[in-house]
Design a protein that fits this description.
Number of strands: 8
Radius of gyration: 16 Å
Structural class: alpha/beta
CATH topology: TIM Barrel
Shape: globular
Distance between the termini: 27 Å
Largest sheet: 8 strands, parallel
CATH superfamily: Copper homeostasis (CutC) domain
């Protein structure tokens, strides 16, 4: 069972590894649901820990429908991130109807190669998560989906999460998220039975 801790700074990254995290998702501005951490912080964390690090690639809060210029900026940072030493990137783009945006997601996923590409919780805003899963499984390079099953928490979204885990092809990892903590991970794992989980407090409190 792989535990991915969501961290916002160097101190949290070091503590998460010490507490037993197997991988980190590094973001800034978690109050905006996570923005890009930038090169300087990413490289500082990578030098300080011995576990893989994914980075969020997102430049503003708000919705996930991006202009062509915003997509260009996302692609530029992804190309830069390939030299940072990160294991993967985390992205999420929706179209004007709130569905997974295929053209630019494909472009960004291909730009990231050979890094791992996770489609983040933007999927939880789509009207049909099973249809979104089917869309994403056909996009080359996308190898993980971070989701709470369209609900506020993984516990509340467990029925959809179970469906997604069962339907996902072997190359696409469903990573449950949403209020998964060190206190409830065993119970959630008992229900979902998958191999990876994500949480801000999945290895305990990280904030000082």
């Amino acid at each position: 069972m792989l535990l991915e801790a969501c961290v916002e700074n160097l101190a949290e990254a070091i503590l998460a590894e010490k507490n037993g995290a197997h991988r980190l998702e590094l973001c800034s501005r978690l109050d905006l649901d996570g923005l890009s951490p930038g090169k300087e912080l990413a490289q500082a964390v990578i030098q300080a820990v011995n576990i893989p690090v994914k980075v969020m690639i997102r430049h503003r809060g708000g919705d996930f429908h991006y202009t062509p210029a915003e997509v260009d900026a996302l692609e530029k940072e992804i190309l830069d991130a390939r030299s940072w030493g990160v294991q993967g990137i985390v992205i999420g783009l929706l179209d004007e109807k709130g569905e997974v945006e295929v053209t630019h997601t494909t472009r960004l996923a291909l730009a990231a190669g050979p890094l791992s590409v996770t489609y983040h919780k933007a999927i939880d805003e789509t009207p049909d998560l099973i249809r979104s899963l089917q869309t994403l499984q056909a996009i080359p390079g996308v190898d993980a989906i971070l989701t709470s099953g369209g609900a506020p928490t993984a516990d509340a979204g467990q029925a959809t999460l179970i469906q997604m885990i069962q339907l996902a092809p072997p190359h696409l990892q469903i990573i449950p998220a949403g209020r998964i903590t060190a206190d409830n991970i065993d119970a959630i794992h008992g229900i979902l039975g998958t191999s990876e989980y994500h949480g801000r407090r999945i290895v305990g409190e990280l904030e000082g």
